[in-house]
Structure formats: structure tokens, C-alpha cells
Sequence to fold (763 residues):
Amino acid sequence: MEKLHGFVGLLLLVFGMGDVRACGGRSPYFGEGSQALIHHSYANDGEFLITHMDMRLAVNFADKTIEGWVEYSLVHAYLRDNRKPGTVPPYHFNPITGNHILLLDHRDMDVLGVYAGGSFDKKSGMLRNGAKGLLFEVSSGSADTLLFGKPLEIEVPRSQSKIVIHYKTRPSAGALQWLSPAQTYDQTHPFLFSQSQAILARTWIPLQDKPSVRFTYTSEVRVVCGAAGAATVGANGSRTSITDCIGVEDPDINPTDFNVVMSAVKLGNPEGDIVSNNKVHRFEQKKPIPSYLMAIAVGSFGYKSLGKNTGVYAEHKLLQKAAWEFADLQKMVDAAGEMFGEYAWGDYNVLVLPPSFPFGGMENPVVTFATPTIIAGDRSLVSLLAHELAHSWSGNLVTNRTWDDFWLNEGFTVYVESRIMEQLYGKNYADMLRVLGKGELDKTLGWMLKEAPEDSHLRLHLGDRDPDEGLTDIAYEKGRFFLMMLEQLYGRAAFDEFLNGHFRKYAFGTVTTDLFLADLKAFHEKQLKAAGKELGSSSSKSPVTGNGLRPLPTWRDFEPLVFAWVDGEGLPNPQVVGGFPKVESKEFERVEQQVSKYFASGEPLHAGSSIPCDASVIDTSGFTTHHWLHLLRKFHTRADGSPGRLSRDEMAGLDARFHFTQTQNAEIACDWFVLSIQSDYRPAYQAMHDFLLKVGRRKFLMPIYEALLAQYVVKDGKYEPAFAQGKEMATEIFLQAEPGYHSVAARSLRELLGLPLTGGSGR
Ligand code: BES
Ligand code: ZN
Fold:
């Protein structure tokens, strides 16, 4: 039996005396019925639905584990629907008892016991004596276990609507990243964060890990320190050991130093409540959420309010800076609520994570998790907050039913994000973001149409492929431009009505591409009718759209275009109604003029001539991050999508004038490093190497490592492919950096570099 620690220890004492007969035994009916992975999950939600979880979590930095006692509230679908046991396949049941078998997703963890008896005492966090051990077993499942884990089977008596699972995560848990103090901003305390989307929630909580199942939750979290998990709080409430939160004794780190957030409203003191010398952090999520929005972060960080229902969490030394950067957060929340309906989640906070966070942001309800790389010092990267905030409607309120419908989460969100940005900062600003988005989409299509053209459909058919593979610019940018086309077709006012209706209709539920298409058809027909009425019977002209710009096609004419977007390859023809919308930016015309001027200032050395272009001709007055990005992308991507390059002299000239190598803006740095690698500009390499060791945001890592893999070097004034050398360099840097990367970034890079995949984070 595990060593006792904290409140968990007390629980085990109760079990020691209680009725734990069958714990770990085998039901002859385990492994029967379908063990097939359906939409990336083994959960049999046709037989049981989890409606609520009540969690007790002990976070242990010393051994990098979370020990959990979770009570699940279950609905027996067969009882609810008055069906006979096992009458509707796929089913999992014991024909002798008539008990159904619950299948949960789980991975990278050890299940220590499963109990029932309706005896989980919420106040004390203990099970009462009557608690009964249930039979459970880990089956093998039908798909890649490293990725999907294995089904956890539990025979649940028909009389029980509550069960408790006691488990402990392994240090390899894919969702969790355990950071040393050196990997944080303040460098004083270790840090833990989770990243559950898409299918990693199962690596830290056993659950029905599919977006179509929603549940509420309550949670109590403690940080436990002490040698290998020894009790920090003794039976009489006194501290019994010197803390060693990080695996070595350190009197400066105490469990009470830590703050905790989850994707839920925090109850009690925002810093946690002291109970028997330790801190307890309590949470409540009253709105039903899908599993991928389960989130936790633990570290030494503070909080600053930014308005009536907004605020920021960041490590102490970063807090002021973060608060300054996010000053417009309240305005964003208010503007979004005005346009798309009331904000549903109470407070909207942003937690700034250490730089290894693998994403830009993650829309965990109540607390968005964000990369520190958006803190550029000039508020120029806050569209990322607008994006995560937008998910409060598209994604968190109305959720993609399966990962095949991921575009319904992300495409809608990018569209809503750009509306928020336009509302706050004007059309010119939003247009810059649209052009940058289109550029990224074109780049993605450049390889995708050759390598996996069917992945360029909005609606995916992932089967047993990792849902991570659907995370491309197609869902985001093709999805957004599809909605932008619809907005232009119907007019903004009418389209807003459609969107608001969508958010109301599916609130706290899920949506599929088919449902969306049916709604769109109904809306389209309504618009046709309304337009026809407006024209009156006297007019024979075809109906016009809400903005009156062009005739609204009949649904019959329009439908093929809609399907070209949803189930077609690449991008629809921009020349036709319903085709790809026009994307242009006035601001960027200015940048393009500067690029032309630059190229005209010499006889481009990079094209084999001898008069280098002159950086001093470029006028950058009024440039924001977006202007710089557009400039750099004009340099490093040719019109046909192939990599561009400049001569080393030209790179040196640009660097001397604009100091790109030293930039603290991670977006600009990323583009500069890509250009530097393409141009074999060595003076940037040390900074690039340092960047790869520090930053774990996958969006930045991938293009830099990809550029390294495709490296050319200059020899005798000529570019020569140096793939072997590039790969060697990329692999060397990666192996050095990997211990600091989150598992999802490490996994993608291992695939890119052709290295074997490890389970979880491998650490
Ligand atoms: N929900 C996504 C991140 C995600 C998607 C994680 C799928 C895992 C699986 C988040 O909202 C997102 O899109 N983040 C972007 C932000 C950007 C588009 C502004 C990112 O991290 O780059
Ligand atoms: Zn998103």
C-alpha cells in the first residue's frame, strides 16, 4: 500500500478497516463487448453518462504525481431509458447480475482502487465504512495505447449512481508538465500545468474523454511536499517533515507558497484556505464542460484584477508587466458579450505560464492559459487573448461533437476573434490579421495539397489518427474565411443574427458539421424569403442580400459552393459568389512598397548578382509587430511559396539596422530565425539556439526545426543543400531541449526528426 500522505492518508486508514474485498479482482465479463475506439475514446456513453465529478487532488512536486480521489456521478442510461440490460449494442454487461460495465479512458496512470457505496463524505473527503470495493480491470483496447491509453473497465452495480476512483498519475502523464524553478520566470518555485486538449485529459483523470460528454465538477487541491510523499500534515495537524517540494530539501519552499487554478470558479480565499497548516484550494464548475477543458496549474503566482470580471495571474515578478500588456481585457469581454450574447462563465482570467507552454493559448473556462511570448511590451499580440476569449462562445459554450468537426471550434473562434479585434482596434488592424492568416493558410496548402489533400477539407475523417493532426490552418483559417464569406453574402447584421442563434441553440451542447449545414440552409431560405418580400410582388428582380450588395443565390445554386468549402480540397474560386473572400490590407500596402524599394536598391546578391540590397532605404515608421511580420514573410517566402533567401551581407545589413537577432518579440524572432537559416546567416544561430532551449511553443518550434532540416549553406558564393548537416544540427539541439518541452511539442518534433516516439512525455 502507498505511503500515507495528508488527507489521502486519512482516507486509507478508513479503507484499512473497511470493506475492500474485491478491489482489483476480475469480472469474467471484462473484455467482452466492443473495445473499439470510437472518435478517439473508449467511453461507452451509451451505457453510462458521467454528469459530475467531485475531486480530491494531491499534487506532489517531489515525485511528479497527482494522486486523486474522484467521485463520479453516473447516469445509467439503461435505467434512465427503461431498457433491459444489454439490449442495445454496443453493450458491456454482466448477464448474471445485469450490471453494466463502465468504460473510461485512461493513460499514464495507476488505478489504485474503485469503490461504491454512496459513502463518499464530501466534508471530510473520506469514504465511510460501508464503502465497497468494485471490480475493475485495464483492458487492452484496439488502438495505439501510447496515444489513446487503454479502457478502464468497472462493473457498476445497478443500485449505484456514484463511484469513487483512487488513482495516481505517472511522471510521464502526457497532459502534465512539471517544471523546475529554473524553467520559470521567478526561478524560485517549481510549476505544474496541464494541457488536456485534445485527448490528454485521460492522462491525469480517468474519464469519458470525448467532447460530446459534458459534466460539472468540484475540486479540492492540496500541494503535498515531503520525502517521497511523506506526510506534511500529521494526524494531529502538525507539520511532521521538512518540506522538499522539489525532491531535495529546501526550507524556502513550502506547500503554502503555491497558488492553484483550475478551469472553474475558485471558492474561498483566492490564494487558498489554510486548513490544518496546509493550504486547500477549492473549485466549482457549475456549467457542464467537456473533458478537454479540464485544467490545472500550480505554482507560485499572484493575481491582479483588470476590471469587473477580468484579471490576470502571473508569477510575481511578471505580474505588473502582464497586467499592463492585457489592459484591454475587460473591453474585449464586454465587446464580445455585446456582439455574441452574454458571457457565460462568470469571470474571465488569463494565467501567464512559463515559456515551455506548447500553445499560444488554451481556452480553459474561467482561466485561459497563455504563453508568456504574447507579452511583447507593446500590447501588440493581444489578439491571442481575443481568440481564447472567443472560445467562451465557440468551443466552450457550443462544442465540436467530435474532433472531425474541429473547424467548428477553431474556424468560428478565429472569425469571432477578428470581430473582437475589429471592434476594439478598427478595420485596418483586423485586416492585417486577416492577411497574415491568409498567408499562413497558403503556406499550409502549399505542402498539404501535395501530401494529404483530403486534410484540406474543413470536415475531417480522422478515424484513429491523432486528433492533433487536425490542428492545422485549415480548421482555423479556411474555417474563418468560410464564415467571412457568409458574412459578406448575408450582410453583417443578418449573419450576426445567425451566429447568435447558433450560440443560443447549442449552448452547453455540441454541434456537428451536418447540424450547422442544416441550420445554414434554413437561414439561407429565410433570407431569400425576406429579401423577396422586401422587393414586393411588383419587382421581378432577384432578391438581394442583407447588405444589398449582390443577389442572393438560391440554395440550390449555393449548396455546391458550401460543400466545396466543407468537403472540398483547397480553397474555392475567389471569382464567384460564395467563393473565397477578398483579403487585403491597406497597412500592408505600405510594407510591400518598402519591400519593393529594398529589392530595387541593389542587384540582389541573393539572386547571384553583386550589389547587395540596402536596408537603409526601408522606411519603418509606424511599424507594429504585424508590419514587421509581413515584411519578414515577404523576404522568406517567395510568391510561389518556396523559401526565399537573402545573401549574408543583406542579412547583416538588415540586422545592423533593425537588430532582429536581439529582438525580444518571439513572433518576430521566429520569422527572423527561419530567414536566417534559409540564408545561412550564422550570426543569428546562437540566439536561435537559445530560443529553442527556452521557448516550447510549438508554433514557433516547428518552422525553425523545419527550416533547419531543409538547410542550405553557402559555399564559394553558392547555395548548396546541406540536409545532413541541418538534420544533425536540428537533432542535436532538439535532444538538448527536449527535457524542457511539453509532451505534445516533443511528440511533433520527434515525428519531424524521425526519432522514435515515447509514451507520454517520456520523463
Ligand atoms: N484550443 C486551441 C489550442 C489547441 C487546439 C490545443 C487543439 C490542442 C489541440 C487554442 O484556442 C488555440 O487555437 N491556440 C492558438 C492561438 C492562436 C490561434 C491565436 C495557438 O496556440 O497558437
Ligand atoms: Zn483556438
User: Anything to note?
Assistant: The two ends are 24 Å apart (CA to CA). The first helix runs from residue 6 to 17. Residues 303-379 form a domain with the Zincin-like fold (CATH 3.30.2010.30). Residues 1-24, 227-242 have pLDDT under 50 and may be disordered.
